[in-house]
């Protein structure tokens, strides 16, 4: 049976610019192998959704909205066409399709009558983007929708517009003719990729941790000892190394310093590269920067239980942690948080508060702990360290996501639940993992 190649859609253009493997997977990949969006992406998607709803309300109140993606595509096509024939001033979530692919523009605004158009009117395409700045990918997406409308209805429109996540409520209009050469080159490269049966191959980039296809790519990068797991190497370095026949960590280990200097690495880069090779060979995470070896020395893993987390978020109330769990070495400890009428939450634990460095995972625990700390009467103040942020910014490992359970799954193939107790244990594991990596360095 012939393999299904999925049609080209708007996001293919941005995917191609960011990662060719991603664009290829969206054409050829098995959708059952897609991973669910991680929490950071879900938060961003929800923000995007909120922005879209707010703009639809403020700018397009009463505009015609085409039935959503759950509806049969033929009905969506028909409804869009009828709305264009009627000359609706604005059409939200219109749907257009040609043999090459399809698109669902956020907004189609009436430009005016167009005798050359088969529906009698012409529409310009608008996209709502959470981002503060206009990106090439956005322009390419709008160019694609505009081309689909032109091919389907023979309308001639040369501009598109963008409603960005900035304070400016006015749309940013772009002359698509200024980008037509780039668009043509990108579209032809994209179609060439679509028609290629072999995947271009994964390459570890920051976006991997939230990509749908990380479940397919990450194991592959590890199994093949992929060169992109070395953060010092840019795509240009990688291309030069490939041309010399150096394709994995083992090859790079054999590469001499003069060769590495020749392809553009500095002596400092080479030092970092050698450290990270050592880390990879020892199953430790490569680091993007150099740090003190004792950065996490004498640290304590801390987490909290928030029994009201789901209701508090829903009712917009304060989070009310009830217990703190912490690990010093392998020893677990629990502290009850004290609440009394009209008094802020407090703890009674000189032992925890006399530690020098408390390590948390994520801002929720840190901000709840900061409130407690503010009202504690202990003489010294421990430093608070967010290991989530540290991993996000400095660790270059093929982790299948940035949630604590993803990281622990990667480190020791174990599942954890969301209780404070389990999270404190997991943070302790993560501290050991990062500490071992910090120690695995030639320099101090
Ligand atoms: S996981 Fe990374 S390499 Fe794979 S498709 Fe996604 S972004 Fe590209």
Describe the structure.
The chain has three domains: 11-194, no CATH class; 225-281; 299-439, Nucleotidyltransferase, domain 5. The chain has a six-stranded mixed sheet with strand order 1-2-5-6-7-8. A five-stranded mixed sheet has the order 11-10-9-12-13. The chain contains 17 helices and 13 strands. It has 444 residues and is α/β, with parallel strands linked by helices. The mean pLDDT is 91. The chain has helices at 11-18, 20-28, 39-59, 73-86, 136-153, 180-194, 214-223, 235-243, 249-254, 257-262, 267-281, 309-315, 350-353, 363-374, 387-394, 404-412, 420-439, and strands at residues 64-65, 90-92, 96-98, 101-103, 107-113, 121-129, 159-164, 172-175, 299-305, 323-328, 331-336, 357-360, 383-386. Iron/sulfur cluster is lined by residues 19, 21-22, 25, 202-203, 205, 207-208, 211, 213-214, 217.
